[in-house]
């Protein structure tokens, strides 16, 4: 039988958990979506049960749910009165405002997004390694230790990401584009009224850099479009959470989670729920690479860039310097080419465009991750990011920004 002394020591530790109230973040910023909220439930709670309790207590119905490991919850519409009621429910862990998420393309480039040119031809090669002549400069840069600038070749192992799966969580993908040779699957759309086709261009561009036959790092990888951004390149954090949830579940159900890469060239204000969801997804086995952001500031201020378990990517230019728009700081894991990147576009089966952003750097790493999975076999996500870092060229970049790593992505194929 426990002594009174032991009970007295135990009670202070137990009471805070019993009496804990949800953390309600009521802050409103320019990026907040008015009246829209993201609730997270306690780890040991059952989502359907909590939804029933919330409806009984506050008359609130979910507008969507997410469940990534222990990070699970629901989206809802409500006001301060509803938040006051939820504050008293022990099953709720936290509530935060839903915020806008945006494609990471610098504002000064967006006006030229719909410029279309003709698709160039692809190069070929022999042996274990393939050489693509006159490749996009980003591909050349990640496959050579010397900077040859524009017109460089891309050297890569002919496995080229075969039997890997890259989930482009973005604006969708132009499935008719010849760059993809039928390797695109339209997954789920979290944009109302859209089935997943790209009506903006950003997602197609990212997909082309990750796995296009001309513009891509992993030219044989499979692509799955998860649409969370609309025709303006904008969406919601709640939609992004649901997109992560869907991608992890899809990869799990189809038996390729250890060969799955989630590429997220988007971001918004800091969200603990989003960062925690990414941690749960990587714990499950999904490699996730995210854009550092284009504000020219510390990446720790935004999500998913600040997620510790994501492989966060900054952008470089042709001069081997950090692009002036690229975020920086301790959140970054790697840099990759992100300025004046040519890739596939929307509007036709051969459209292309040249744009800039950490959005363009990120799919270089998504493709490189898929390339290394095919070449060396699956690794846990942390080990794969570390492998990318170990291959990288060290201390050759200029002005990486305070706290940033000085690592430029490299595939190890050529000198």
UniProtKB/TrEMBL annotation:
<dbReference type="InterPro" id="IPR050131">
    <property type="entry name" value="Peptidase_S8_subtilisin-like"/>
</dbReference>
<dbReference type="InterPro" id="IPR022398">
    <property type="entry name" value="Peptidase_S8_His-AS"/>
</dbReference>
<keyword id="KW-0645">Protease</keyword>
<dbReference type="InterPro" id="IPR000209">
    <property type="entry name" value="Peptidase_S8/S53_dom"/>
</dbReference>
<dbReference type="GO" id="GO:0006508">
    <property type="term" value="P:proteolysis"/>
</dbReference>
<dbReference type="GO" id="GO:0005576">
    <property type="term" value="C:extracellular region"/>
</dbReference>
<dbReference type="InterPro" id="IPR023827">
    <property type="entry name" value="Peptidase_S8_Asp-AS"/>
</dbReference>
<dbReference type="Pfam" id="PF00082">
    <property type="entry name" value="Peptidase_S8"/>
</dbReference>
<dbReference type="GO" id="GO:0004252">
    <property type="term" value="F:serine-type endopeptidase activity"/>
</dbReference>
<keyword id="KW-0378">Hydrolase</keyword>
<feature type="domain" description="Peptidase S8/S53">
    <location>
        <begin position="161"/>
        <end position="379"/>
    </location>
</feature>
<dbReference type="InterPro" id="IPR036852">
    <property type="entry name" value="Peptidase_S8/S53_dom_sf"/>
</dbReference>
<keyword id="KW-0720">Serine protease</keyword>
<dbReference type="InterPro" id="IPR015500">
    <property type="entry name" value="Peptidase_S8_subtilisin-rel"/>
</dbReference>
<feature type="active site" description="Charge relay system">
    <location>
        <position position="170"/>
    </location>
</feature>
<feature type="active site" description="Charge relay system">
    <location>
        <position position="359"/>
    </location>
</feature>
<feature type="active site" description="Charge relay system">
    <location>
        <position position="202"/>
    </location>
</feature>
<protein>
    <recommendedName>
        <fullName>Peptidase S8/S53 domain-containing protein</fullName>
    </recommendedName>
</protein>
<dbReference type="InterPro" id="IPR034193">
    <property type="entry name" value="PCSK9_ProteinaseK-like"/>
</dbReference>
<dbReference type="InterPro" id="IPR023828">
    <property type="entry name" value="Peptidase_S8_Ser-AS"/>
</dbReference>
<comment type="similarity">
    <text>Belongs to the peptidase S8 family.</text>
</comment>
